[in-house]
Request: fold
Amino acid sequence: MRFFTPGPAHHRLGLVCLGVGLQYGALPTVGPRTLDHHVAVVISSGAGWYTDPADPQGRRTAVTAPALLWLTPGVPHHYGPDPGTGWDEGFVDFAGPATASYTDLGYIEPDRPVVPLTDATGPRAVIGRMARAARRDNPLLEVETGAAVHELLVALRRARADLTPDGHQVLKALARDACLPLSVAEHAARHHMTLAELRTAVRRGAGCSPKDYLLGIRLGRAKELLAGTELPVAAVARRVGYDDPAYFSRLFTRRVGTAPVRFRAQQGRTVPGGFTDRVPDPADPPVIHAPPAP
Reply:
């Protein structure tokens, strides 16, 4: 186990790691206790239990690996592994103003302290890297572990067992069709879903509303077209699903903070032949040939 005391400047980065640990075997029970910060406890093997000390009936929730325990500020908790089997756990204590945004997006779930995971390998690897970074002589300790807390929250979100393949398929289909001139209701109808069902699926999978999910994709594509082509703004608007270029320009300016024309002036990188959408493979980087000598 390692515990840290980040300074005010580190807290302004959004998230700080207050402690990290890797433990296994017949560990002692924890609590009852209440903390003033968040803790993610990743159970990668074994089984145990969790209970809310405030529950008058003292009911226990079974914990079977792989699983996540969310310990949130101000909420009493009491948990431990089965004495006969023990368990393998990695924990990260963290805090910071960004926890509120991660909670709004559904990455942190205060109302669900026990979360089944499909696989703990990804989150456990992040915790392992944090533990290795936790050297007293590491000058990057607070920044490196704080950045890893963001990575851990993403890994935990990806590993959640309740994010069903059907939900992912809906998000993929919405991303594919985002630039079609369709309303959210029309997207729902294409997938034989009610608006409420679509909202629930997108909120669970992406942490936002269908409107914001589609808008983010449209604006991202619009930026690419503005930066990488010489298409007129009206043509860019049509390419991303807006028949009214004036409305598109107002929307772009409001959400991006600068007008489409100014964005192009700042970011324009038109190249002969255009850009490719293929992401380079780190194991097979492209070969850049030098121009012939004059």
